[in-house]
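Progress note, sequence design subtask.
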């Protein structure tokens, strides 16, 4: 019992520290996950020595599931537009060069200087050379607008990541031509079969199973199970989670409520624990290890920048290829836990990844953070104010409703007392419209929400979605805006269209 209490307290403490580190990193203009990793390093034996890797053993399942859900969302958000995987021949060649040359350089160094086996050296080189497409896209989108060269960067980065995942899977499972062929076929199924198959399965769940949250539960079950089923046939669990995200990207994007819940579950709990755990695995390093970290950073970074600038990209654009993220550190942890590298090499590689993240972020500084539409408060969206005074004539109300579809009725203190829709005028004599105040036939049970309510909270309340209009009130009960299902749909579609446009 005492051990369970200690584990629970440790998880809670790590979650709190991870989110605090994430907040500090984002305020400084760096990706949030880097703050969680650095927090873990500070707590680990590398610095303060407060927490040792062995302390994470009871919570190891959470960390593993955290890897899968982090990569699942990466698949949803990064691989949602297959059109980005239509590169030109020159882009394909550059992708191969950006992945292979740094990988081979690091592998040779690891064999000669670290004494690693060929399999471990190539795996380490692949992880360090990998381009993380998600962070790359976020860096480019931080500018606010995309240029043609940015689309090329996205295609090259994503292609390099996909190829790196294929190579890593082949290496980690033991190289053979048959294994390579199996992996390529498996990845090909993602774009040919998987998306439609899983979509149809979840649509079947929606239509025929009516218990609460059934589709959401099955999404969670799929993420948890498929990776380990894939392990049985020799495929990496984390990579499978990424591909599953690609399978379900379209389904998730058009169901913002489910996507928001998976994001909350992942970003609010599993991901921060995973990233701070990544940092805790770091070991105290010597000057020699710091030198290795410098080599792991400088050599692949220089090669990437030289290759990209030679291709025609500007220096800042070339630095974007240094972007790293959850995929990279997940694969690095797989090398450690698979016994292919030791804690000293792991720590050096982790420091190199952090240096790469910081360098890329400095080239594309994000001054302001923006939330997705479902996470935004109603007051931040500057909602329309479709209201009418209770003593106003029905004729004026009819004209307003004819234009807007519905209106909230307020008293002289701006408090909502009712609402009106087009059907309410069906029983009113048109000749009497000028003489009758709207309060005589308005509907009195006006739906009301706080201005601090988020879009996702409205989506989670089905009865609200059936209301023709909703009054948004401040802490004094005064109407500060209104929202309709039509306006809500327009907001969600605008976000979806923006996402697709940026991913083309």
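Output:
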């Amino acid at each position: 019992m005492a051990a369970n209490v200690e584990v629970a307290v440790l998880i809670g403490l790590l979650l709190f520290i991870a989110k605090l580190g994430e907040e500090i990193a984002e305020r400084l203009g760096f990706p949030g996950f880097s703050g969680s990793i650095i927090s873990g390093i500070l707590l680990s034996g590398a610095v303060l020595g407060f927490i040792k890797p062995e302390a994470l053993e009871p919570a190891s399942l959470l960390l593993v599931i955290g890897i899968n859900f982090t990569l699942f969302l990466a698949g949803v958000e990064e691989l949602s537009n297959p059109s980005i995987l239509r590169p030109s021949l020159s882009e394909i060649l550059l992708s191969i060069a950006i992945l292979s040359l740094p990988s081979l350089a690091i592998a040779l160094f690891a064999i000669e200087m670290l004494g690693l086996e060929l399999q471990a050296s190539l795996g380490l080189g692949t992880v360090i050379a990998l381009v993380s497409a998600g962070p790359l896209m976020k860096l480019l989108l931080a500018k606010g607008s995309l240029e043609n060269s940015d689309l090329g960067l996205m295609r090259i980065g994503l292609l390099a990541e996909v190829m790196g995942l294929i190579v890593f899977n082949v290496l980690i499972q033991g190289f053979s031509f048959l294994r390579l062929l199996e992996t390529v076929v498996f990845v090909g199924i993602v774009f040919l079969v998987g998306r439609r198959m899983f979509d149809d399965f979840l649509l079947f769940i929606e239509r025929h199973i009516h218990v609460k949250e059934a589709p959401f539960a099955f999404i969670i079950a799929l993420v948890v199970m498929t990776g380990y089923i894939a392990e049985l046939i020799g495929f990496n669990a984390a990579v499978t989670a990424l591909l599953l995200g690609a399978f379900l990207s379209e389904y998730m994007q058009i169901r913002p409520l489910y996507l928001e819940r998976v994001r909350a579950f992942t970003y609010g709990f599993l991901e921060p624990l995973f990233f701070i755990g990544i940092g805790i695995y770091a070991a105290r390093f010597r000057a020699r290890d710091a030198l290795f970290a410098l080599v792991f950073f400088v050599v692949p970074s220089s090669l990437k920048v030289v290759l990209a600038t030679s291709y025609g990209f500007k220096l800042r654009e070339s630095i974007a290829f240094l972007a790293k993220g959850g995929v990279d550190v997940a694969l690095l942890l797989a090398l450690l836990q698979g016994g292919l590298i030791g804690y000293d090499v792991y720590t050096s590689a982790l420091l190199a990844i952090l240096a790469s993240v910081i360098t890329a972020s400095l080239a594309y500084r994000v001054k302001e953070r923006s939330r997705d539409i479902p996470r935004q408060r109603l007051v931040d969206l500057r909602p329309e104010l479709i209201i009418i005074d209770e003593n106003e004539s029905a004729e004026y109300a009819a004209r307003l409703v004819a234009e807007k579809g519905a209106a909230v009725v307020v008293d002289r203190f701006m408090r909502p007392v009712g609402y009106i829709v087009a059907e309410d005028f069906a029983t009113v004599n048109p000749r009497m419209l000028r003489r009758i105040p709207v309060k005589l036939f308005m509907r009195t049970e006006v739906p009301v929400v706080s201005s601090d309510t988020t879009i996702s909270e409205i989506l989670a309340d089905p009865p609200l979605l059936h209301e023709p209009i909703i009054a948004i009130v401040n802490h004094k009960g005064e109407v500060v805006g209104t929202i309709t299902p039509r306006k809500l749909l327009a907001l969600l579609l605008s976000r979806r269209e923006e996402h697709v446009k940026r991913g083309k």
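The chain has 20 helices and six strands. Work on this subtask will continue into the next period as scheduled.
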